[in-house]
Amino acid sequence: MDLRFSFPATTTSRVRIGAGVEAELPAAVRALGADDVVVCCDPAVAAIGNRIGAALGARAVLPVAGGEDHKRLDVLGRLAGELLRCGASRGTALVAVGGGSISDLVGFLASVWMRGVPLVLCPTTTLALCDAALGGKNGVDHDGIKNLLGCTRQPDLVLGDTDWLETLPDAPFREGFVEVVKKAAVLDRARFAELERLAPYLFARRAPAVAEAIAMAVAMKMAVVLGDERERDRRRWLNAGHTIGHALESLAAGTLRHGQCVAMGLVAECRAAADVVPAAVTQRIAALLQAIGVPSTVPAELRDPTALWARASKDKKVQQGRVPMVVPHAIGDGVVVELTPERLARAFA
Ligand SMILES: NC(=O)c1ccc[n+]([C@@H]2O[C@H](COP(=O)([O-])OP(=O)(O)OC[C@H]3O[C@@H](n4cnc5c(N)ncnc54)[C@H](O)[C@@H]3O)[C@@H](O)[C@H]2O)c1
Cβ(290)–Cβ(309) under 8 Å? Predict the structure, then answer.
C-alpha cells in the first residue's frame, strides 16, 4: 500500500496589542474554549501575572525566571512536572506572561505538553511585542546552542498591553525596537523612513510612537510568516543581524542582551558585506539605532573574527557549510549573501 494523506493547517492566531487591553483578556481566553488555564509568569512581572491569574480564575500561577539562562530543557521539565501536580490536563491553556525567553520556553512547553494545548502569549517587553511573541517559533537553548530544540507552532492568542512596559528599564525598552529596524532595513523602505521620524519619540518612550512601531513590526513580520511559516525562503530575511548577532551573544556569554547583539550584528553584517551594502546604507542604519538609543559598536574584547566565525559556522542556519545572511543592498531591499571568514574579518577591520 502507498497512500498519501494531507492535513491542511487550520490554525488561527489572534494578535491584540494596545494600551489597556489587559481587561479584554478573560473574554479573549474564553473564546478559545479551553477547560481552564495555568499562568506561567516571569517573577519580574509577578504583579501582572497574579492579576491575570486572578482574572482568569487560573488553576495555578507558576513562576518561571526570565532571561536566556533559564531557557533550558530542565526548566521545561520542571514546569511539566508542576503542570502535572496542579492537575492541568489536555484541555488546559497555558498563558505565558513575560519577555521573549518566557514566550519561547512556554510556547515550546504548550507544543509538547500532552502533545499540545492552547497557548496564550502576554508579552511584557518591547522585544517580545515586536518579535518574539509573533510567528510561532519557540524552543530552548541546548549544549550552548541557542534554540537548538524547539518547533514551529502559532500561539492561539497574543495579547499585549503596552502599559505593561512601564517597569521595563530604558535599555531593554529601546533594544526591542532593533527588531523593527532590522525588518524595515531589509523589507520596507517607507517604514524605515517612518522609523527615522519616530526615533526621538521612541527614545522618549512616547506611547503613540511605541504603538506605531509595534504595529509596523506585527505587519512586517506576519506578512512574511504567512507566506513562509517554516522558514524555507523569505522568513530567513527576518534573521538579518542575527548571524553575527547570535555569534556575539554566544561569545559575550551573558554579558550582552539579545537586542544589543542584534543591533551590533546588523551593522557588523553590513560592514562585512561592504562589497554589496553601500556605506551610506550602513551609516543610515547605525544612525537610526543611535537615535533610538541603542549602541551598535561591538566592544573591543568581542572583536575576535576567529572566535566569532567558530560560532557563526555552527549556527542552525548553516546550509552545507555555507553561512547565509541577509543584508540590505538598499534600504528596504535585502539580499542573501554568504558570510565567510574573510568577510567577518572585514566587519571589524
Ligand atoms: N521566537 C522568536 O521568534 C524570537 C524572536 C526574537 C527573540 N526571541 C528570544 O527572545 C529572548 C529575548 O527576549 P526578551 O529581551 O524579551 O527577554 P527576557 O524574557 O529575557 O526579558 C528580558 C529581561 O526583562 C525582564 N522583564 C520582562 N518584562 C519586564 C517588565 N515589563 N518590566 C521589567 N522587567 C521585565 C525579564 O525578567 C528579563 O530579565 C531571547 O531568548 C531570544 O532568543 C525569540
Answer: no
Ligand 1 atom closest to the Cα of residue 146 is 43
pTM above threshold 0.85: yes
Q: Which residues form the pocket of ligand 1, taking CB atoms under 6 Å from any ligand atom? A: 42, 44-45, 66-68, 71, 98-102, 104, 124-125, 127-128, 131-132, 135, 137-138, 164-165, 167-168, 172, 258
Domains, the chain:
14-167 (3.40.50.1970), 170-347 (1.20.1090.10)
pLDDT digits (tens, 9 = 90+) for 109-160: 999 999 999 999 999 999 999 999 999 999 999 988 888 899 999 999 999 9
10-19 confidence digits (pLDDT tens): 688 999 999 9
Give the separation between CA 270 and CA 276, rounded to whole angstroms: 8
Q: Out of 109, 127, 129, 179, give the residue to mutate to test ligand 1, the one with the largest number of ligand atoms within 8 Å of its CB.
A: 127
Query: Measuring CA to CA, which residue among 256, 308, 262, 271 is closest to residue 289?
Result: 262
